[in-house]
Amino acid sequence: MRFLLFLCILLVPLAARAQDLTVFAAASLTDAMNDISALWVKAGHPALRTSYAASSTLARQIEQGAPVNLFASADEKWMNYLAQKNLIAPGTRKDLLGNDLVLVVPANQPQHVTIKPGFDLAKLLGPSGRLAVGNPAHVPVGIYAEQALKKLGMWDSIEPRLARTDDVRSGLLLVERGEAPAGIVYGTDAAVSKNVMVAGVFPASSHDPITYPFALTKAGDTPEARALLTFLQGPQARAAFVRRGFKVE
């Protein structure tokens, strides 16, 4: 009897750990997913293990075998990448959120501009300033930025002056520190910083729709992970996303 009791005591922590979930999410989701992790705990679950980075970085880590239950991408491209490699659990992919693409400047150097064809972004940067943005080669915010700059006729003059960063939050940090006179980030990232202001919003027609697909990985598809995906679509999580400025699909 004592042995069985001892065995039960040992198994309880193991069972609890078995319910832990790992979430890989785009850097722009950091604050919202931290909020939702707290709500998930209040609902009686263990805290989520979260990792935030560029969607491209996270997707490649999943491809290399990182043990992940849920992936939240800042664009369709990197979710498609994993789906094509048969790493996404069928039927679990959901486009949950939207966002805006904005131009930010340091809060102590306020500016308001209308972003449209003919807008002189190079003048705003000054003679030697650089534009902070996620690397357009693979970071979603940089991919959207390149689309917008090309559509508005600015790419050729601005491309040599990009300060390419590993993710959207790194670009935001350069502007916060005054190391770049301007940057392109999501509206939700600008909202969490007191040290930047939104100078202008890029027209939605200038880039692909900014969507956030969420999905379970095939290797991490468990009943608890499915419960989390359902929770993310529920009223508490939706309200948390809205509070952080996301557009709820």
TrEMBL record:
Residues 1-18 form the signal peptide. One of its GO terms (biological process) is molybdate ion transport. Pfam families: SBP_bac_11. GO terms for molecular function: metal ion binding; molybdate ion binding; tungstate binding. The complex is composed of two ATP-binding proteins (ModC), two transmembrane proteins (ModB) and a solute-binding protein (ModA). The keyword Metal-binding applies. This is Molybdate ABC transporter substrate-binding protein. Keywords: Metal-binding, Molybdenum, Signal. The lineage of its organism: Bacteria, Pseudomonadati, Pseudomonadota, Alphaproteobacteria, Acetobacterales. GO terms for cellular component: outer membrane-bounded periplasmic space. Molybdate binds at S28, S55, V168, Y186. The keyword Signal applies. NCBIfam families: modA, PRK10677.1. Belongs to the bacterial solute-binding protein ModA family.
